[in-house]
Design a protein that fits this description.
477 residues; alpha/beta; seven-stranded parallel sheet; six-stranded parallel sheet; 15 strands; 17% strand; globular
Length: 477
């Protein structure tokens, strides 16, 4: 481990709540490592094994904590795909209050504008306890980064979990080049000011400790800038950037044609079935976690409206809906997941017929099955009430076999890049969304193919490796 002066430290550091690997304790106490995916993993691999990079992350569960106890937190590169990883064992109660109590229950709700404001939020003494934990959690990351970094190293801090880290790290190591990247939307000024005044300012000044603060879209970057102008008097010397993370086309196309995906396609085709005239049924596909922001319930309501007002689609279309449970340790998410399942059953009961199940709902996470659905999609429904980007909107057109029409919420970050080639909807307007689904299902094949080609080109313009490297280069600028 490097000294606080940066001797023999890493030249490139990434900090995120979740790391590239997780651990489980098996029989006899053996640890099993499971490597993750995503843009950061692809990005770090792009800089090569000789770049002297370290990933600092948190232990998320008992297996991770046991790995930290056995290794001191410096994980074996054999378990991490060759990456140097330092995993922090933050006390479980501090982690829970910081992660669930603040990051997921406050900051996520603010940036996605999810509060029922007549009742929430309530910032009381309990909130202050949780906020102190969030401060402690961020301070642990700042200390670890300061210890691991070489003189003048580049540090890329990720997301709303670690908004205070840049400012704290700047105080410990003013020599470092620090970037912060927000993967979520950023709230407009009036909504951001729901937060207590001191907390709102602390969050902004934390990010402004970075040399550069970056966002997925210009809309989110402008919202951050507006908050700074209203609360801190401006962004100071911090530069603002935009990097619209794209889909990894090469990986997706290769992975989508493996044997396990073909097997799941066969199963899905059986569940979808054929129309009464023997023709293939059309498919409306959505793949989401049951995040409150994903708007799955209104998507189902729009599909029900389609079947009610356009009876010609009964028996001829199937809504393939994958709603993978998320954050089930929070009651509001458990309730939302239950409502998704209830509404799907209600639609199937009301409209289903022998040989036709209107909604094919899957709730068990299965990446191969998601890719199979992508390939079968005639229409992709992506209708979040608010989303930082939404990679599903970018992934489906890349692997769809026959071409698909994207029905896209104007509140998704992906709208900035894909809106021109999609059918755009107001995510709250169920009737208009149903009409858009009808239009998507009836578009001529040539137009559908042309839209898909344009969507795929836009969706892959900034693949994960380039997205990551662009941020490193911007810190050098």
């Amino acid at each position: 481990m490097a000294s606080s002066e940066g001797e023999q430290g890493a030249g490139i550091l990434v900090a995120s709540n979740r790391g590239p690997v997780s651990f489980a304790v098996g029989e006899g106490g053996a640890l099993t490592a499971r490597r993750g995916g995503g843009g950061l993993v692809s990005g770090l691999s792009a800089i090569g094994p000789d770049a002297d990079a370290v990933w600092v992350c948190a232990a998320l569960g008992d297996g991770d904590r046991e790995a930290v106890r056995r290794t001191g937190g410096a994980l074996d590169p054999a378990d991490t795909g060759g990456q140097r990883v330092r995993m922090l064992d933050v006390p479980p109660d501090v982690f829970a209050d910081a992660y669930n109590g603040i990051a997921n229950s406050v900051l996520w709700f603010v940036h996605h504008m999810l509060y029922q404001t007549p009742l929430e939020p309530v910032f009381d003494a309990g909130f202050r306890v949780r906020w102190a934990a969030y401060e402690e959690y961020n301070a642990a990351f700042a200390r670890a980064l300061a210890e691991e970094a070489a003189e003048g190293a580049a540090v890329l801090v990720q997301d709303y979990h670690l908004a205070l880290v840049p400012g704290l790290l700047r105080g410990l190591r003013p020599d470092l080049r620090i970037g912060h990247f927000s993967h979520t939307p950023w709230a407009p000024v009036d909504y951001f000011r729901l937060l207590p005044d001191d907390v709102a300012e602390q969050l902004l000044r934390g990010i402004l400790g970075a040399d550069r603060a970056a966002f997925l879209t210009h809309r989110w970057a402008d919202a951050f800038t507006a908050c700074c102008e209203a609360i801190t008097g401006g962004t100071g010397s911090t530069r603002i950037g935009v990097h619209g993370l794209g889909a990894d086309a090469d990986f997706l196309r290769e992975r989508a044609h493996r044997a396990d995906v073909e097997e799941r396609m066969a199963v899905l085709r059986g569940q979808i079935g054929t129309a009464p005239d023997g023709s293939p049924r059309r498919t409306i596909v959505r793949v989401d976690r049951t995040e409150l922001s994903k708007n799955i319930v209104r998507g189902l309501l729009a599909y029900r409206d389609l079947l009610e007002r356009r009876p010609e689609w009964r028996g001829r279309v199937v809504h393939v809906a994958f709603a993978y449970p998320s954050r089930q340790d929070l009651a509001v998410y458990r309730d939302y997941t239950a409502e998704v399942s209830r509404l799907a059953r209600e639609i199937n009961t009301a409209y289903g017929e022998p040989g036709w199940t209107p909604v094919v709902l899957h709730v068990e996470d299965d990446f191969a099955r998601s890719l199979a659905a992508y390939r079968l999609a005639d229409v992709a429904l992506v209708n979040p009430v608010r989303d930082g980007m939404n990679l599903v909107a970018k992934e489906v057109p890349v692997v769809s076999d026959r071409g698909c029409v994207l029905v896209l919420s104007r509140e998704a970050g992906a709208f900035e890049e894909l809106g021109e080639h999609a059918l755009t909807v107001n995510p709250y307007d169920v009737t208009a969304t149903a009409d858009a689904l009808h239009t998507a299902l009836t578009l001529p094949e040539a137009e559908r193919a042309e839209r898909t080609e344009r969507l795929a080109a836009a969706a892959t313009a900034l693949p994960p490796a380039r997205w990551f490297l662009d941020q490193l280069r911007a810190l050098d600028a």
